[in-house]
UniProtKB/TrEMBL annotation:
One Pfam family linked to the record: AMP-binding_C
Swiss-Prot/TrEMBL keywords: Ligase
Annotated protein name in UniProt: Propionate--CoA ligase
Lineage, highest ranks first: Bacteria, Pseudomonadati, Pseudomonadota, Gammaproteobacteria, Lysobacterales
One GO term (biological process): propionate catabolic process, 2-methylcitrate cycle
Annotated organism of origin: Tahibacter soli
Keyword Hydrolase in record: no
Keyword Ligase: yes
Domain AMP-binding enzyme C-terminal stretches: 510-591
InterPro entries reported for this sequence: ACAS_N, AMP-bd_C, AMP-bd_C_sf, AMP-binding_CS, AMP-dep_synth/lig_dom, ANL_N_sf, Propion_PrpE
AMP-dependent synthetase/ligase domain: residues covered: 63-445
Length: 632
């Protein structure tokens, strides 16, 4: 089928389109109505239908593929590789579900999961889904304060934590963070269920509150816990946005719409079916982890690889080695991870024959053309950028190699996915922008299945955050974009990050892209800094592939970057200052923290730094600002 026809049908006849797609999952009771849209922008997909995510991800495959590998959890930190067939996964999930039931966890109760990328995190999520409990996974790298905020918002009945995670060979104890978070939280859960990996021998337990999963598992090893059938629009999980732009929002996902959107996208976008292998390098704490490490691959009967470790340890070829060993067909990672590899010898990319490997998908941040080319040419495989948000749960913009692959245009995440009726809107006039004109990317509701149903416990915040920006009731992505004559979209940065230089509006991303075309640049961050005359001026922070040179060499590099921007975008975009640094501050999800860089550059408080990955990177920015621009 042609992409154009399928897409048109998804917009013009959404009920017919999604009724067909819904056949890909098991319904205990079929939907009464495919789309109920009586209270815009709230919508109910597959109303009256009853289904269960765990049943679709596990039980449904037992007959046809019980002995097939379902999950491989690989840790290059501990050296453990844990393999589970669908039958073994079913056993583990039932035992976990029985443990939850024994602790009084019921349908609709929230369960916060604070764990690294280990198999038990997947069991915990699926066990919640099985009994109709609502999981809220909090990324294991978050500090006590972040965890406490999410606990107070979700008000969980139970917290499930691991004793520790590991990163770069170092044990990161989670339990002290859990204790601190529970002390900070206004509504701490009565119990903490601990999955003890044996990494932290000094771990302490609070009597009566803290329970060991191993002991409970022994008691429930052979339990069979019946699946709880949920109405399609009941909540399946909560997941907080990354918090790049401010206080995280509790994205609420439904059951049926989520399952259907994942089944569709596994087939049409990711091109992975029963018995095939998908490797997503995401953490279970992110939306990608939920959709394409856990639910998506399992719903379609594929094999999912889960990875704990760095992309460069034990060596920079580790990911491709795993792809070769497991016969990975589709891999999913982020531009940030590829930029880490880009600092390494490209020979690592070609060390393993990858006959089964078809596609590398990248998402989460703008994918600049040089990085896309570097990895695509190094691997000899197609690289497909895709754009989405925690809110949407699956790609908004992408190409669909599983259906009908349109040409890759470097720098663009592609074409609208099914059900996304996208427009670019002029921020000021609210009118639709013509191809080539910049504006805000919006979607006309109803949003397709899989997208958030609301902000947890706060419909007003849902409306205010996403639907209050224009006179029409449009979902604002809060991203700045432009479309071209072929209908491809380009993301130019967040609307917060638009720079206004003497009346010209420029996306930070356009300038970053121009900087990144310089062969010596590894990564760049561009911010707009207040200027008396021009309003704002672009300021560049860049890391170089070969490390930071000193003195005159640094000035040469900075000058070259300024010229590069002027050549590509014209004099108006010419950076006022360029700083060559060793590292850029990012969130734990690998996103540039431009707001913090900008605050430092304008001598303001850098704001909430709790999502910051590496404090040294911020110190780097401070030092560079003190030293002064590297331009000569
Ligand atoms: P918060 O909403 O809390 O500030 P966040 O927006 O960083 O955090 P996510 O939902 O993880 O949280 O990130 C989605 C955003 O990431 C998108 O809105 C967009 O700005 C950016 N993004 C994701 N994929 C791409 C892509 N392929 N190209 C460009 N930008 C992307
Ligand atoms: Mg966001």
């Amino acid at each position: 089928m042609r992409y154009e026809d399928a897409y048109r049908r998804s917009i013009d006849e959404p009920e017919a389109f999604w009724a067909d797609e819904a056949r890909a999952i098991h319904w205990h009771r079929p939907p009464r109505k495919i789309l109920e849209y009586t209270n815009p922008p709230f919508r109910r997909w597959f109303a009256g239908g009853e289904t269960n995510l765990c049943h679709n991800a596990v039980d449904r495959h037992l007959d046809a593929r019980g002995d097939q590998l379902a999950l491989a959890a690989i840790s290059t930190e501990t050296g453990v590789r844990a393999h589970y067939t669908y039958r073994e996964l079913h056993r583990e999930v039932n035992a976990f579900a029985a443990a939850l039931v024994s602790l009084g966890v019921d349908r609709g109760d929230r369960v916060v999961v604070y764990m690294p990328n280990i198999a038990e995190a997947v069991f915990a999520m699926l066990a919640c889904a099985r009994i109709g409990a609502v999981h809220s996974v909090v990324f294991g790298g978050f500090a006590a304060h972040n965890l406490a905020l999410r606990i107070d918002d979700a008000k969980p009945k139970l917290l499930i934590a691991a004793d520790a995670g590991m990163r770069a060979g170092k044990v990161i104890a989670y339990k002290p963070l859990v204790d601190e978070a529970l002390a900070l939280a206004a509504s701490p859960p009565p119990h903490v269920l601990i999955v003890d990996r044996g990494l932290d021998p000094s771990m302490t337990r609070v009597a009566g509150r803290d329970l060991d999963y191993a002991a409970l598992k022994k008691r429930h090893a052979n339990a069979d816990v019946p699946v709880v059938w949920l109405e399609s629009n009941e909540p399946s999980y909560l997941l907080y946005t990354s918090g790049t732009t401010g206080k995280p929002k509790g994205v609420q996902r439904d059951v049926g719409g989520h399952a259907v959107a994942l089944a569709t996208s596994m087939r049409t976008v990711f091109d992975v079916g029963p018995g095939q292998v998908m490797f997503s390098t995401s953490d279970v704490g992110w939306a990608v982890g939920h959709s394409y490490n856990v639910y998506g691959p399992l719903i379609v009967g594929a094999t999912s690889l889960l990875y704990e470790g760095l992309p460069i340890q034990p060596d920079p070829g580790i990911w491709w080695q795993l792809c070769a060993e497991y016969g990975v067909r589709t891999m999913f990672s982020s531009p940030t991870a590829i930029r880490v590899l880009k600092k390494q010898d490209p020979a690592w990319l070609a060390r393993h024959a990858l006959p089964e490997f078809r596609w590398l998908f990248l998402a989460g941040e703008p994918l600049d053309e040089p990085t896309a080319r570097w990895i695509s040419e190094g691997l000899g495989k197609p690289v497909i950028d895709n754009y989405w948000q925690t809110e949407t749960g699956w790609p908004v913009l992408c190409l669909q190699p599983g259906l009908d692959l349109k040409p890759v245009k470097f720098g663009s995440p592609g074409l609208p996915n099914f059900g996304y009726d996208l427009r670019v809107i002029d921020e000021v006039s609210g009118e639709e922008a013509a191809p080539g004109e910049k504006g805000v990317l919006v979607a006309r509701p109803p949003l397709p299945p899989g997208c958030l149903t609301t902000v947890w416990g706060d419909d007003a915040r849902f409306l205010q955050s996403y639907f209050s920006h224009f006179k029409e009731l449009w979902y604002s992505s809060l991203d700045w974009a432009v479309s071209d004559a072929d209908g491809y979209y380009f993301i130019l940065g967040r609307t917060d990050d638009v720079i206004n230089v003497a009346g010209h509006r420029l996306g930070t991303r356009e300038i970053e892209e121009a900087v990144a075309t310089h062969p010596s640049v590894a990564e760049a961050a561009v911010i707009g800094v207040h200027d008396e005359i021009k309003g704002q001026v672009p300021v560049v922070f860049a890391t170089l592939k070969a490390g930071t040179p000193e003195g005159a060499a640094r000035a040469d590099a900075a000058n070259a970057l300024r010229e590069r921007v002027a050549e590509r975008l014209g004099a108006v975009a010419k950076p006022a200052r360029v700083y060559v640094v060793n590292a850029l501050p990012k969130t734990r999800s690998g996103k540039l923290l431009r707001r913090s860089i900008q605050a430092l550059a304008e001598a303001r408080d850098p704001g909430d730094l709790s999502t910051l990955d590496d404090p040294n990177a911020l110190a780097e920015i401070r030092a560079a600002l003190d030293r002064g621009s590297d331009l000569s």
